[in-house]
Amino acid sequence: PEVPREDAESDWSADSWSDYGSRDKPGTTLGRTVPDGNVLFPDIFHTDHLLFYERFRAYQDYILADCKASEVKRFIAEYLEKVLEPSGWQAIWRTDVFEVLVGVVDVNFQALKAVVQLSEPFLCESQDSSFTLECMQELLELKEHQILLQELWVVYDESGEFDQTALAIEHIRFFYRCIWRTWDEEEEDEFDYFVRCVEPRLRLHYDILENRVPSGLVVDYQNLLSQCEELYEKFLNVRNSISSNDSDSEAENVSMVEGLKLYDKVEHLKQKLKLIENPLLRYVFGYQKYGSLQAKGMRPTGAKVIHVVPWTMTASLLHLLARDKLRPESCEDVEIQFHRDPLAAVNACYEGDRVIICPGHYFVDGVFSIADSVELEGYGLPDDVVIEKQGKGDNFFDCTGANIKISNLKLVQHDAVEGILNVHHGKTTLENCVLQCETTGITVRTSAELLMRNSDLYGAKGAGVEIYPGSGCTLLHNGIHHCKEGILVKNFLDEDYEVPKITMVNNMIHNNEGYGVVLVRPAIPSEMKDASAQETKVGWVDSVKIEENEFQDFLMMWLLCMTVGDILFPALGNTQPTQAGDETACAEGSRQELPGCVTDELELYKRAETSEQTENNSEIANVLGATSAKKSQTHKKRLSELGFTEADDNLMSQEMFVSVEGNQFKWNGKGSFGIFFF
């Protein structure tokens, strides 16, 4: 008996391709678009508007499946053989210099090329008039009439017969333009190519299209990609020159050294690209986008100006301003200017200027780029002076001035990609402010410094405060709550960066979804080797009683570390078993001797809570200090391997300056402190 066709071709049935057009259904399901230019080309299929899930499904289910990197071209060829019409359709052949209408007479599936001939009448548009009919025929003969499929745009056909052909070519074109890298074939074959490369790159592409990635990070990614492609091409040339020459000459040895250097550079750039492609680690990779911010310096006249921004100016308000802020004895020679918009006032500032914003709710469509040392002050309580972001944009405040002060303001952020305030350079002081965030909160970049005092920050979908290597951050008497993470310390992204200097005193960090404080750093290879030894060191925890509120923190941190290669959490390594046991025994003894008085129970609860907060502060300080010392040891070992037996004391004493006292951590989803390895 004959095998039913639907059983033999179940994976490629018309129903499975219903979203992409079907030969069994009359009429096309795709749109059409008119080609640009002066030549009257026929309309083409409109296929470059596909959604993320449409491309995702096509690559995962129909094109690549679970193929390895070395199998990509074969899987694509097999896919095209099933869906592509081998002949009978027209297309526009597009290059950087010309466009010409061709007819397809055959397809070389293994080479991913179409066999074409010029259509009649001859239609061609080019940057100059040199591409005549004879010239194009000669060019096709040189190419043996075979051109890459991704260079073809299928001419529109209402019948629906060529829908799958148009979509298949669009998928191949998009893959080789946006997904495939020239070095992918050398990736290790034990990994699923779709999971490892296609999915993260596809997600990044659509995140960029939907403005979910900062423009500066996009530029950095494109620059890194160009650099990597250029270096990889040089590496291939050097490698090919070595492989074609069997002599053991000095020139070949030099080429081998050069090839190794190029290989290391390429691998370094590939790792940076993977960081940006990974949505979880994308913002771990810092980028510098403040180069366009130029300080104005002092005015040519040397004068300083006070800029006043009134929502509405009344006689009583003017009297209060003159009494409190514009006293003659302090502002005798200072010019006063009035503005209706806070952004216009800041843009008019020079070095040493001051901006006073009167009570009101100000809506601003733009970015505050502060490159000079200026003071931005609200006149009144923060809830009375509100600056709210309107319109989409990367960020709200960019600070690069040497000494910037912002006080008594409430900042409200909407439709943003970056954090509410970025400190790129210099020192920024934030005092008595309220920050209602949208994405991340405050970012303190490398070589920048932040002093945040008596302020309230909430609502960040990322971290409330992000602290980069080589920065300084002082947090005094602040509230950081209802964020994804409270404070994120990014450490050791590159061995050339100094560790951050952190001071946290009397802050209230509560109700965050993740940890109160989390440290992000790469796993050091030596830690992987010492994992079993570290497991032995903390084995005592099993025999020590852990309070319920402490157990959740410990368990979450332990599981986090186990998932990155059995690297156990080092935070408890500084605690001795006997001390922990004694403290627990003392606590239990205290409970047994307590009378049944509610007042005494409340007093005990307060003491236990105070003790817990003290332990949390000590734990954070100890772990940050320990990881800093670990970096110093690693750096010293690397210098020793390079032949440097003596290192500069200043270089080797790059220990993280940490002062963590009096902070309270309450109701954070994963606990007070955690470490994320990558």
TrEMBL record:
Keyword Membrane attributed: no
Any single GO CC term annotated in Swiss-Prot or TrEMBL for this entry: midbody
Domain Right handed beta helix: 405-519
Keywords for this protein: Acetylation, Cytoplasm, Cytoskeleton, Phosphoprotein, Repeat
InterPro entries reported in the protein's UniProt record: Beta_helix, PbH1, Pectin_lyas_fold, Pectin_lyase_fold/virulence, SHCBP-like_N, SHCBP1-like
Job description of the protein: May play a role in signaling pathways governing cellular proliferation, cell growth and differentiation. May be a component of a novel signaling pathway downstream of Shc. Acts as a positive regulator of FGF signaling in neural progenitor cells.
Summary of subunit composition and partner proteins: Interacts directly with isoform p52shc of SHC1 via its SH2 domain. Interacts with TRIM71; leading to enhanced SHCBP1 protein stability. Interacts with both members of the centralspindlin complex, KIF23 and RACGAP1.
Name by which UniProt lists this protein: SHC SH2 domain-binding protein 1
Annotated organism of origin: Cettia cetti
